[in-house]
Amino acid sequence: MAVVARSTGVAADSGKDHATAERRGKRIAAAKRVGGVEQLEFQEFYRASRDGCLRAVLASVGDRQLAEDLVAEAFTRAWMSWRSVSRHPAPPAWVVRTALNTRISWWRRRRREVALDGGLEVADDMAGDPALDPALLTVLRGLPRRQREVIAFRVFLDLDTRTTAKVLGIAPGTVTAHLSRAVSTLREHLVTADNPEVGS
Q1: Model confidence, pTM
Q2: 42-76 b/e with 16+ CB inside 10 Å = b?
Q3: Residue 182: which domain range?
C-alpha cells in the first residue's frame, strides 16, 4: 500500500507539473499574440503616419536630414512606449512633439558646434519632395518657432485647435493667434513671390 501511495503521489505531482507547464505555455502563447497584435498595430500606424509626421517636423525645423533623424528617433521611442502612445488622443502628435523635443535636446548638446536656428538655408534635397514646396519651407524657416509648431500641428497633422493647444501646452486662443499670424506672413510672402508686382 505504501508503494501504491508513493506511486500515486508521484503521479499527482506529475499532473500538477503538467498543468503548471500547460498554464505557463498558454500565458507565453497569449503574450506572443498580444506582442504580435501590438507590432502589427504599430507597423500600421507607422505606415499611415510617417509621411505626415515627417512633413510636420520638416515644416518646423526646415532641414530634411535633421527631420528624418528626429522622426526616426521619435518613432523608435513610440514603439518602446507603444501601449501608452497608442492610447494617446493623437499618436501622430505624440511623435511630432517627441521629435521636436528631441531636436531641442540635441541642439542644447551641440549648440557650441552648430547653430540650428542661425538662418540656415533650406536643404537642396527638399526639392525632391513633391508634397513640400521649397519656397514654402523657406518662408516657414523665417517664422518664430512657436508659429512653426502651430503650423506643423494644425496644418500638416490636421489637428484641431484644442488638441494642438494640449500637445503644445498653450491656450487654444494662443494657438489661434499664432496660426493667424503665421498664415498672414505666409500669404504675404508667397503671394508677393508669385506676383512681384503686388509688392511694388
Answers
A1: 0.66
A2: beebeeebeebbbbbbbbbbbbbebbebbbebbbe
A3: 2-199
